[in-house]
Amino acid sequence: xxxxxxxxxxxxxxxxxxxxxxxxxxxxxxxxxxxxxxxxxxxxxxxxxxxxxxxxxxxxxxxxxxxxxxxxxxxxxxxxxxxxxxxxxxxxxxxxxxxxxxxxxxxxxxxxxxxxxxxxxxxxxxxxxxxxxxxxxxxxxxxx
Length: 144
Fold this sequence. Notes:
The chain is of the alpha+beta class. It has five helices and five strands, in the order E-E-H-E-H-H-E-H-E-H.
């Protein structure tokens, strides 16, 4: 696994983990790396210094925490939002754009959904007035 500091065209900065450098390159080329803040597909690696401090075993054990444990107020708010979305809406995966459009056009009964859309699908929904918004998290269990 490799962690990259990333920056989008709007100069938003965030980090993400990838299986390898090759995995990042492949996902970025396919338009699957998007800004965690604005959803922009124009994302580049930012300059990042590696962390090299080795902590003694006792100190390292005291500092250890699961990667998914929120530590900042923003992380806690995002975790709370994720719980709310997961409990109060249906995850529809890659069918999101199609179902959101069908509901907007009245072809399907309205319900709370969330899922994934390619950047061009999301852009088309927004341009057509379909009320959608990017979420600052991914489905549980899904990773780069």
